[in-house]
């Protein structure tokens, strides 16, 4: 899913949580995390294109599967589960909102990207040695199928 689509989903998410009576901290964290989770694409990009940053090239590279190694630390169901447990026990609206926004983002990515069933598991990506061709199914990409 592309950034403008995540922004639309985040806005709808914020309106829904506002209508349900969510706290400002929860709503703000949910909306922000639903978009900002994608910051973990930057290290993957810079790993292959050091000392440069061209915004159109960045989006093309990420959206079309032109990166050979993907770590995507924040795109991790394991991290999401840990965050959810901490949010539950601390009763933190900020952490709960972050968990909600990140969870919606991961679900949207799973449903709309060239994902395999375990793409958003860090343990799976580690087992695949972070090889993008084994983690995603980008059409025409090296290793994609």
Order of helices and strands: HHHHHHHH
Total domain count: 1
Low-confidence stretches: none
Percent of residues in helices:
55-70%
The secondary structure category is: mainly alpha
Strand content: under 5%
Q: What's the alpha carbon Rg, rounded to whole Å?
A: 16 Å
Report mean pLDDT, rounded to a whole number: 90
Account of the 3D structure:
It is a single chain. By secondary structure, this protein is mostly helical. It has one domain. The protein is 63% helix and 0% strand. It is built from eight helices and no strands. Helix 1 packs antiparallel against helix 2, helix 2 runs parallel beside helix 6 and helix 5 packs antiparallel against helix 6. The longest helix has 20 residues. The radius of gyration is 16 Å and the shape is globular. The two termini are 19 Å apart. 29% of the residues are buried.
Topology record:
Elements: H1 3-19, H2 24-36, H3 41-48, H4 55-63, H5 77-90, H6 93-112, H7 122-127, H8 132-135
Helix pairs in contact: 1-2, 1-6, 2-6, 5-6
Describe the structure using short key phrases.
single chain; 145 residues
Give a concise summary.
This protein is an all-alpha fold and about 140 residues long.
């Amino acid at each position: 899913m592309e950034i403008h689509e995540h922004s639309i989903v985040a806005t709808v998410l914020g309106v829904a949580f506002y209508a349900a009576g969510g706290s400002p901290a929860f709503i703000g964290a949910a909306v922000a995390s639903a978009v900002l989770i994608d910051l973990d694409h930057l290290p993957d990009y810079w790993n292959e294109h050091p000392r440069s940053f061209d915004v159109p090239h960045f989006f093309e590279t990420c959206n079309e599967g032109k990166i050979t190694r993907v770590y995507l630390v924040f795109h991790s169901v394991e991290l999401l589960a840990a965050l959810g447990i901490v949010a539950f026990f601390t009763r933190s609206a900020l952490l709960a909102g972050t968990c909600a926004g990140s969870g919606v983002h991961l679900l949207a990515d799973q449903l709309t990207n060239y994902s395999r069933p375990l793409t958003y598991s860090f343990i799976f990506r580690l087992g695949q040695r972070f090889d993008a061709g084994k983690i995603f199914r980008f059409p025409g990409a090296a290793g994609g199928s």
